[in-house]
UniProtKB/TrEMBL annotation:
Descriptive protein name: BTB domain-containing protein
Domain MATH: 15-142
Residue ranges of every copy of the BTB domain listed in the record: 166-234
Domain of life the protein comes from: Eukaryota
Length: 324
């Protein structure tokens, strides 16, 4: 059910507020734009704003706002019940066009929203003041009522020092991350050499810059190394494997390999490519075992991925063909 409400009618503070300033709103289309990803109540959230002009909007162009929850999770048993309030803010008097929803998120339904938060002709009406210099402001307030089937996350802010634990600052894309030499060295032979091996005398500085590493991707790696309970997923597995291979973190490689064996997010050919690139023998055996007839296995040869496979992998595929 959709209803107009006032912000002050909500009794308690929201669990999450996502505010988006959208530039060049005149160019906004059906693909839309997304906010950053946020964490609240052990779930991931993001907002998507897009236009729509379809049968369900009676062919009228409208502005839609959609909240996405836990979309990357591969768990099948979670559920989240929320009240959310979407609003577009007026630049004239800070008035708002707003909708209130009560809805549930689950693995089969990870996004909900206002299909028609405001008609496009109302959005463009200068008397309403929603657009200023081709920019609008969208706000979504989320009140979480109940969460089930979700493992509690231990979110770590690596940008903040923790006494006695973080004794070096790694600089990644000009961002400073406070980490423990001992902890990283325990998992990574590369960091062990840098901090305590033959490079130790050169690296007694309190800060060290890592080159050719993306900040967000390195955070994903740290979240796997540190006890956060954050799982590897389809979005992160590629760069986590790349970084784990670069810094020789076998524990992370094994976790990524286990994820790829269990997940249904990737086709077998894509999994073979991961196995070939990073020498994941268990994953390789798992993938080849899935081919039970010769015709299916022969479809690999014309593929782009097959052309890039190592001789070792091509030989394993040929051996499998002989077995069939």
């Amino acid at each position: 059910q959709i209803m107009s409400i006032r912000w002050d009618s909500m009794i308690r503070h929201p669990d999450l507020v996502i505010r988006m300033d959208i530039d060049e709103v005149s160019k906004l289309n059906g693909e839309g734009v997304c906010s950053d990803v946020y964490y609240a109540k052990d779930l991931t959230w993001k907002l998507k704003v897009r236009t729509e002009q379809s049968f369900r909007t009676r062919t009228k162009k409208v502005l839609g706002v959609y909240l996405h929850c836990n979309w990357e999770s591969e768990s099948s048993g979670w559920k989240c019940e929320v009240v959310m309030v979407n609003a577009v803010i007026s630049r004239i008097d800070q008035g708002q066009e707003q909708h209130k929803f009560k809805c549930s998120f689950s693995p089969d339904s990870t996004n909900k929203g206002s299909v028609n938060l405001v008609p496009w002709h109302d959005l463009k009406d200068p008397r309403k003041g929603f657009i200023l210099n081709d920019r609008i402001t969208i706000e979504c307030r989320v009140y979480v009522e109940k969460v089930t089937g979700v493992r509690k996350l231990n979110m770590i802010d690596y940008t903040m020092p923790a006494d006695g634990h973080n004794n070096i600052v790694l600089i990644v894309e000009e961002m400073k991350l406070h980490v423990s030499k001992d902890y990283l060295a325990m998992y990574s032979t590369v960091f062990e050499d840098i901090f305590f091996g033959k490079y130790e005398e050169k690296n007694k500085e309190v800060e060290m810059e890592l080159h050719d590493v993306k900040y967000e991707e390195f955070i994903d790696l740290l979240d796997v190394i540190y006890p956060t309970a954050i799982d590897i997923n389809a979005r992160t597995v590629g760069h986590i494997l790349q970084l784990a291979n670069r810094f020789d973190i076998q524990y992370v490689v094994e976790r990524a390999e286990s994820y790829l064996i269990e997940t249904s997010k990737f086709k077998t050919l894509a999994k073979l490519a991961f196995a070939d690139k990073y020498g994941l023998d268990e994953l390789m055996d798992h993938c080849l075992a899935l081919y039970t007839d010769l015709a299916a296995l022969k479809t690999l040869k014309p593929s782009r991925e097959y052309k890039g496979f190592s001789d070792k992998t091509k030989s394993a595929i040929c051996d499998k063909m002989m077995d069939l």
